[in-house]
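Subject: sequence -> structure tokens, single chain

Hey, anyone have a minute? Need the predicted structure for the following. Not urgent.
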Amino acid sequence: MRPTNLLEGKVVVVSGVGPGLGRHIAEDAARAGASVMLSARSADYLGELADELSTRYPAIDHHACDVTRDEQCAALLSATEERFGGVDAVVANAFATGQRDMTLEGFDVDAWQASFDVNFFGALRLTKASIEPLRRRGGGSVVFIGSQIVRRVRAGRGPYASSKAALLTASHVLARELGPDNIRVNTVVPGRMWGPNLHRYIAQLAEARGTSFDEQVAVMVNDVSLTKLATDEECARAVVFLCSELAAAMTGQSIDTNAGETFH
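Reply:
Had a minute. Here:
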């Protein structure tokens, strides 16, 4: 199942492009007809991926950007307008998960800052840099990438969970602020996604617990309604939908893509 023509003539910026969800968002947007600007901190990786994708999708380019820097966010949007003539959608996918055992008592509060710098403030910096370019196109779409951890909070994950929860609330505020300019702000909230990052994590769990990889997967899907883990690519399709005119009346909303592990 592939999205086709949903984003014909649109220009999409995707931050935090790596081998998992970011790559699939970029590729599915291109497959849906969009011109796509790939962005992440690693210029070398971006160049390799852009070269690979451009063999199938000619309107692909890349621009390195650290979303914690205002000037780099501004430069990314400027480069996109120069290259493709405008910006119609921006996907804030850059993230920092932080340590899994970072309790409030066990760490300095300042140690939480890294997750907020990328997940929350980075997304805000990128969005702020996008407002004028989107306004020049008569509006558009901003899509934040949330996390199921805001639905199922776990001890020791405070920085990541809190930053993603703050981002979800910010999407509601920005939907109100930017709505008059026809700029929509929505959030995709993935669950555990079957991709490179989760594959590595399951392998580590299996080794630490003395079990097999398959046993750990079985534990994870035990309480999932569809009895499977959603894939990176399946989550990416929800992002493409929110970037498209099919979601023209949606703003301030969140779409959970977790195969029915939690309900909201």
